[in-house]
Amino acid sequence: MFGRSDTSDYVGFIQANNFYVSFGTDIIAFSKISNLETTAEYDIIQEGGLNDRVHIVYKSNTQVGTAVFEKAVHKNDLSDYDKIVQVGSNFDTVNVFVTNGTVPQKLYVLTDCFITKKSLSGFDASSSELLVSRMVLVYSNMNVVPV
User: Fold this and answer.
1) Is the pTM of this model over 0.70?
2) CB-CB contact of 96 with 34 (8 Å)
3) Phi/psi of residue 26, each to 5°?
4) Mean pLDDT value across the chain
5) Which 8-state DSSP code applies to residue 130?
6) Is residue 33 within 8 Å of 17, Cβ to Cβ?
7) 63, 65, 61, 80: which is closest to 34 by C-alpha?
8) Is-contact 108 92, C-beta < 8 A?
9) Alpha helices, H only, the chain
10) Residue 13 Cα to chain centre, angstroms
11) Which domains does the chain have, with CATH numbers?
């Protein structure tokens, strides 16, 4: 099914290459986002007696998620990317909109966000690779919101 190039095989699937990100009211396009995940923490309790299984107790989350955002640096980039996205910036929410063209299909909401790192891929005069800006953002929780 997925080995062919016939696009009819992908009806109903959401492509991962159509997305944009909002930081408050500011919208920024990225070329890649990785490490979006959510986890649940738990304790395993074995009680004495004649219990035939362990018990799993969920606890409140004590770890954060870490997402990496990548964006090619363009000489004519007129966005305020460097003003909006600064190390140490806090955001109540960061929204990742996944679209089908212009129509949002899914919304991932990251809460209690903090930018911990920005870096460039490196300058190499002997290479034709693009200069890529990377940003690392930590967040306390990720929710999927229906659109």
Assistant:
1) yes
2) no
3) -95, 130
4) 80
5) P
6) no
7) 65
8) no
9) 81-84
10) 19
11) 14-37+62-145 (2.30.110.20)
